[in-house]
Amino acid sequence: MWFLSKGFAFYVFELNCQLSTVNCQLSTINYKKGGVKMIILHEFSSCPYCRKVRRKLDELELEYDRREVPRNREQRTKIKELSGQIKVPVLEDSDGTAVNDSSKIIEYLEKNYG
Predict the structure, then answer these.
(1) pTM, rounded to two decimals
(2) Secondary structure of the chain as H, E, C letters
(3) Are 89 and 42 within 8 A, CB to CB?
(4) Record: fold of 39-113
(5) Domain residue spans in the chain?
């Protein structure tokens, strides 16, 4: 009986150590990111090309914000400023890099975060 209790206590200790390690890693990541999300995806939620980019972002386990772009083309001033065009998706990285076209965005993500 004592052995089982000792084994259980050891298991809890191991779990706490692992959680502490995860917390340390998460703190480092948040510090590197400045506590804010580094990537913004300008998109339509129903767009298949945007969905393709979201899948890649999720696959790479990247933290990102989703920004729904206005349907009215004249109101798409933000993505026009970023990428020079009004089509979605547009990825905006924290260093100011803006990439449009889902294939180019995925290539950029794999090169810089993969």
Answers:
(1) 0.67
(2) CHHHHHHHHHHHHHHHHHHHHHHHHHHHHHHHCCCCCCEEEEECCCCHHHHHHHHHHHHCCCCEEEEECCCCHHHCHHHHHHHCCCCCCEEECCCCCEEECHHHHHHHHHHHHC
(3) yes
(4) Glutaredoxin (3.40.30)
(5) 1-34, 39-113
pLDDT in tens, 12-58: 334 344 444 443 333 323 333 444 458 999 999 999 999 999 999 99
> CA-based diameter of the chain, in Å?
74
- CA-CA distance, 88 to 69, in Å (whole number)? 8
Tokens of 21: 């390690």
Report the phi/psi class of residue 35: left, alpha or beta, with left for phi > 0 and alpha for psi in -120 to 50.
left
77-103 pLDDT, tens digit each:
999 999 999 999 999 999 999 999 999
**Identity at 55, one-letter amino acid code:** R
